[in-house]
Specification:
Two copies of one chain form a homodimer. The first copy, chain A, is of the alpha/beta class. Chain A contains nine helices and twelve strands. Chain A has two domains: about 5-10 and about 185-264, Alpha-Beta Plaits (2-Layer Sandwich), CATH 3.30.70.600; about 20-180, Molybdenum Cofactor Biosythetic Enzyme, Chain A (3-Layer(aba) Sandwich). Strand 3 (about 55-60) of chain A pairs antiparallel with strand 3 of chain B.
Chain lengths: ~260, ~260
């Protein structure tokens, strides 16, 4: 066998099913759209949410323009259990995310004394806690604060909208703080099967048949091109071990047959 | 002076203005949303389009689900001059982008003889050009093909929708092929000013005043956290050198004043 089946995630979980919990991510910032800053949060959040049993279903990146941000918040929070946002909660004039969240949710926004207390820990000298920094304490009414152990200025969760910083290390710490408070569903299990050098075109038809025979699973084929040749992975996903295992066995049998035919 | 002004892009261009040309990007693929594959195309395309005078205004990532893809194509192509898509044009059952583009645009789709001829260059043996590989020659009617020098299976442009591969090296080659055929606008010029260690909270208020005084520019502040401390850049953007230079001078003067006050 030249291909391997690599189990990913915790496959020892109980087979009881919880309803899927879905999320969207809204990345806010001109710098991502200009290419100046390369986003590092989408991949991190995608993997993190998959790991805790929340399905990321959509991502959008929008500029620092209030109507674009408010429009995206409106569309995404209505469509998913949770909406995560990154970026735009700093102290400068282009940081308008908190106001946009409040506007989209139709709630008020004002200086939050809990947030001011957090900022005071970082800026004990009252002269340093100026108007600009106090902008970071503007929090939509009714929000729960999300801890920021790095620079103290908090994120927040209001309704189903979770607003986090754009700086990756701070975003990651905020995600750790808020994640245990979220509802999660049955985790998506996943097994990758290396095709042992077989190209997509050689197994595309047969793989489609395997997918049809296993409607409880989602089967994808992912080519990697290293500059010389393609190295493909077939990924089978399902929420339960039994259908997952059955589909993986059929994928492996299909690849064995194709490898044998190739040798013959 | 501890901060530097770094010119980016070609600042020697003529001052004649062309109308802005805008674009959206639709990234298609379950593997990005599960976190299994980390997208490398968004940042590349953002930087590339900025460099040729096309403003990337929105990005969406959607799963391999026809109604999600069609819905996003509909929304984005109506809103922008161009819509770029990446992913979902390979030979397997989960590659449904071409059909979704045809559906969204209300045009037919069938096997394209120009695309078949390209695939024959890679698969000269007729037995190798099987049904699965011929899926890659399914092209929406009326499309212009986009060359794929790496694995031959083409991308295409139909209406204002530009459909490219998801594999980064192939996508990049396709972008090189299609870009010279696109309408472009006056390039966005950009200058980054390092704040010389000044934190955002120290200059946030003053920077907002600079932005107000220079409405033809867009001024952003971008914190970088290296695990120890913040290192910030102020980025001024404009389509013409004169307003750009004026705003940059004011940003530099503001930082000089704040540095002097700090020393005093």
């Amino acid at each position: 066998m030249v291909y391997i089946a690599k189990p990913q995630g915790n496959r020892r979980m109980p087979q009881t099913s919880r309803a899927p919990v879905t999320a969207a991510l809204l990345v806010i910032g001109d710098e991502i759209l200009s290419g100046r800053t390369k986003d590092k949060n989408i991949g991190y959040i995608a993997e993190y949410l998959t790991g805790i049993g929340i399905d990321l279903r959509e991502v959008r990146v929008v500029p620092d323009v209030a109507e674009e941000i408010v429009g995206a918040i409106d569309a995404l929070r209505a469509k998913h259990d949770y909406l995560f946002t990154t970026g735009g909660i700093g102290p400068t004039h282009d940081d308008i995310t908190a106001d946009c969240v409040a506007q989209a949710l139709g709630v008020g926004i004002s200086q939050d004394e809990r947030a001011v207390a957090m900022l005071r820990e970082r800026f004990p000298n009252p002269a340093d806690l100026n108007e600009s920094r106090l902008r970071m304490a503007r929090i939509p009414h009714g929000a729960a604060l999300i801890d920021n152990p790095i620079s103290r200025a908090p994120g927040f969760m209001v309704g189903n909208v979770i607003t986090m910083a754009g700086v990756p290390s701070i975003m990651q710490a905020m995600l750790d703080d808020v994640a245990p408070k979220l509802r999660t569903g049955t985790k998506m299990l996943s097994v990758s099967v290396d095709t042992g050098g077989l190209p997509e075109g050689a197994y595309g038809g047969a793989l489609g048949d395997v997918q049809k025979a296993h409607p409880e699973t989602m089967i994808g084929s992912y080519p990697n091109f290293d500059g010389q040749r393609f190295r493909n992975q077939i990924v089978v996903r399902a929420r339960h071990e039994e259908p997952l295992g059955a589909a993986v066995r059929d994928v492996e049998a299909m690849l064995s047959t194709l490898h044998a035919e190739k040798k013959a």
